[in-house]
TrEMBL record:
N-acetyltransferase domain sequence ranges: 10-173
Presence of keyword S-adenosyl-L-methionine: no
An example molecular function term from Gene Ontology annotations: acyltransferase activity, transferring groups other than amino-acyl groups
Official protein name in the record: GNAT family N-acetyltransferase
SUPFAM superfamilies: Acyl-CoA N-acyltransferases (Nat) (SSF55729)
Superkingdom, taxonomy of origin: Bacteria
InterPro entries assigned: Acyl_CoA_acyltransferase (IPR016181), Bact_Acetyltransf (IPR050832), GNAT_dom (IPR000182)
Keyword field: Acyltransferase, Transferase
Amino acid sequence: MHNDHANARISVSQAKPHDTQAVMDLLVGTARWLQSQGSTQWSALLAGDDHHNVAGHIEKGELFLFRDGNTLAGIVLLMQVPGDWDHNLWGADGHESVVYLHRLAINRDYSGQGLGADIVHWAENGVSFPGKTVMRLDCIASNPKLNAFYSGLGYTFKGTSPSGFCLYEKQLPQR
């Protein structure tokens, strides 16, 4: 990590196994909020299905916590090796120089304060991954606000998957 803060108030650290429950609580809370907005996104979490294997990503050091003091304000998952999901969306080739951003989630008490953008900027600049030059992410096509968020952060729209996910990527700063 080059920077242990996302902004003046929010500190950053890699999640540890003892953080798993707090991370799951944040993800489930986000899924409940999405459901209240009419979205089925992340709804498997509400049924107790963590098919993204949060604990496994924590063990690999891929999940980052954003805290305001002792309060978990947000998380992001940064994967240097694509998962099956990424292969399904992006195809079999061209993953060597890519970091995948997944599971950006914000504690609702911090929504509307620019923390999501701060976390994405930190993911691009606050940590480096040797040999990685591109950040990729996907989001559900039916959420225009989320798509505008990523476009507004300089991500280039690369297309929509047959399963209805918009694909975005951005060149990372070279270190």
